[in-house]
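User: Can you recover a sequence for this backbone? Please restate the input before giving your answer.

Assistant: Of course. Working from this structure:
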């Protein structure tokens, strides 16, 4: 039986392409055994505002030269949550689907607390998948045993998950050894993030790379019309 698998590090309220990749596979593995990287998507993302694109960043505790794994990275404090929700509410209150999204999104910020960035990211990713009707199995790399070697580890994770095809982001072409997948009998496919249509968006020039929350606030259940793998 064929099974597609994707493996990506968890991101904070990721952009629409991230969720399209989740929707394209049978199992999506959060690769949070990787080293935490600063100034990356692990703990921050962008929203649109009247003043342009703005970052929402979750403060984290970084030790020394930050040789810590994503899954071990702790969130620093709780004040950020109310600030982030305040920014979202302020900038998207006039969007067509604000109330529908706020009804389930606001409690994730206001009524819950999180200790680690990986836990926070997964919670939001799963909530957004639920809203979009994405039923992909989401697991963590820590659920599996891990080999040494970048490509060897990815191919083995895919094999452990019962995968027959590995879907990879195009940026990984720089380091993935395709022969490792061939030798495992696993098909390697590169995900295409190009060609997304524009959707009705507030505040001037259209921007594709912002958080998917922008699409949800503006389009609600019609978000699937502007994605590739999410069913209406």
């Amino acid at each position: 039986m064929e099974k597609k698998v994707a493996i990506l590090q968890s991101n904070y309220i990721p952009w629409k392409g991230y969720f399209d990749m989740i929707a394209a596979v049978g199992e999506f593995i959060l690769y949070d055994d990787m080293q935490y990287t600063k100034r990356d998507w692990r703990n921050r993302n962008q929203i649109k505002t009247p003043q342009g694109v703005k970052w929402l960043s979750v403060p984290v505790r970084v030790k020394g030269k930050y040789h810590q794994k994503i899954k071990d990275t702790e969130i620093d404090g709780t004040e950020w949550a109310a600030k982030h929700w305040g920014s979202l509410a302020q900038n998207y209150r006039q969007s067509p689907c604000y109330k529908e999204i706020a009804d389930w999104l606001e409690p994730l910020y206001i009524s819950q607390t999180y200790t680690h960035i990986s836990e926070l990211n997964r919670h939001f990713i799963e909530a957004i998948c639920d809203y979009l009707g994405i039923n992909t199995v989401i697991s963590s790399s820590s659920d599996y045993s891990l080999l040494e070697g970048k490509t060897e580890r990815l191919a083995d994770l895919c094999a452990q998950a019962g995968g027959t095809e590995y879907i990879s982001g195009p940026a990984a072409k720089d380091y993935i050894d395709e022969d490792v997948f061939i030798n495992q009998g696993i098909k390697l496919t590169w995900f295409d993030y190009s060609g997304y249509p524009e959707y009705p968006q507030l505040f001037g020039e259209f921007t594709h790379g912002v958080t998917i929350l922008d699409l949800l606030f503006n389009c609600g259940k019609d978000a699937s019309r502007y994605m590739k793998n999410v069913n209406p």
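That completes the design. The radius of gyration is 18 Å.
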